[in-house]
Input
Amino acid sequence: MKKVLFCLMAILLSVNVLFAKQGDKEMNVVSFNIRLNTPVDGDNQWTHRKDLAANVIKFYDVDIFGSQEVLHLQLTDLLERLPGYDYIGVGREDGKTKGEYTPIFYKKDRFKVLKSGNFWLAEDLNAVGKKGWDAACERVATWGIFLDKTSGKKFFFLNTHLDHMGKVARHQGASLVLEQVKLLSEGLPVIVTGDFNATPDDDPIQVLTNPSDPRHLTHTREIAPLKYGPEWTFHNFGRIPNDERAWIDYIFVKGKMKVFRHGVLAEYLNSLYPSDHCPVISTLLIQ
Output
């Protein structure tokens, strides 16, 4: 009997180790527009939300995430609260610290940045701080090639924020993202996150996901076997009626990437929301 129990325990231990190794290769990926720090938000201002926003990342054990509307103070606030993470990215107005970032945060003990860079969504993508086409704001994209230390595999990650006004800028910005992913990704599996200020049937998303374009990306929500949360991501701190809320935040993939689940995290604490957008999460595996 003791030998049987010992064998069963050994088998269970082996199975647990096997699953642990497999689980280590999966990534919890998030896109999270944290809403810039501005006094006009009153009780929803960043100073009240910063701990809650960081706790979202901690609670869901996020491995890597793209964020939007991140001012430098907010960047440092998040890094102070998430000491296990580092980031890549620059302020969109001067290519340094001025204006909103679209940073990529990642767990330092899991990932290594092999290459990284930034480009502006404009006619001249290297023109720092330039507004492109008919855009209302400067728009920047941050990208990196990462090594996953747990699996030894590499992948490409890009994070951005499309303009909310300029029709031409939105179309051209989406096209530029596709082209830059093709040029920069080195044929690796691709993850693209962002606030695209567009619903799934709007032009920018149609550009990004057009199946007739060999460069096209896939919205992880569409192929996830497990879906969680509402079919919207922007709620303006709960002010927009449920039936009028829009889906504008995305995690896209391309290449050898398996999608296990996708969720829209619509939680809040008492009357406090972590942002005016819901974070979106997807669990991925590089194959």
Remarks:
- The chain has a mean pLDDT of 93.
- The CA atoms of residues 200 and 247 lie 7 Å apart.
- The longest strand covers residues 111-120.
